[in-house]
Amino acid sequence: MIDDKILYKKFLEGDITAFEDLVFTHKDNLIYFISRYTGDIFIAEDIAQDVFAYVYVYKEKYNFNYSFKTYIYTLGRNKAIDYVRKQSKLKVIPFERDNEILLDEDSLEEKVIKDEEKKLLLDSLKKLKPDYEKAIYLANFEELSYEEISKILGKTLGQTRVLIHRARKALRDVLEKGAGDDER
């Protein structure tokens, strides 16, 4: 897989297929991320399209000091917040990733265990504050650095570290409370 920055440099040199590769690589996760702000997948798709249109038109604005993913997620976040402000209401939908595909070589027992663990984790994430849920999603599922997360969420690095620490502690508390409920 070619690095995003290499693809972007090719795009700057006029290679449209490099831009298409960037869009194809990042569009689904970007749409999902934006939908966390808008509460509507169709609106999120429109905003993601706006993000890529912005990147296409203003290609020189990209700062190579940041990853391309951080750049588009920041643009997506800002455009989503603008949309929400215009709508003057904020909706947050539950965190779900039902489309994950398990490997074929997993035994039936392993699949059942993974499904149960996934359900427990998703149910627990739904109980967290929206900011905690977003922070854990970006850190653990998107595997972004704290610097990238802070840029996306519009927070300082220190605020991001505290947010993720508190989010993980809250998730741990929810999971432990849930385990305690099962024992009764």
UniProtKB/TrEMBL annotation:
Keyword Phosphoprotein part of the UniProt annotation: no
UniProt xrefs under Gene3D superfamilies: 1.10.1740.10, Winged helix-like DNA-binding domain superfamily/Winged helix DNA-binding domain
Stored Pfam families: Sigma70_r2, Sigma70_r4_2
Record key words, sorted: DNA-binding, Sigma factor, Transcription, Transcription regulation
Ranges that cross the membrane: none
Domain RNA polymerase sigma-70 region positions: 25-89
Domain RNA polymerase sigma factor 70 region 4 type per the UniProt entry, residue ranges: 120-171
RNA-binding in keyword set: no
Recorded superkingdom: Bacteria
Similarity remark: Belongs to the sigma-70 factor family. ECF subfamily.
The name this protein goes by in its record: RNA polymerase sigma factor
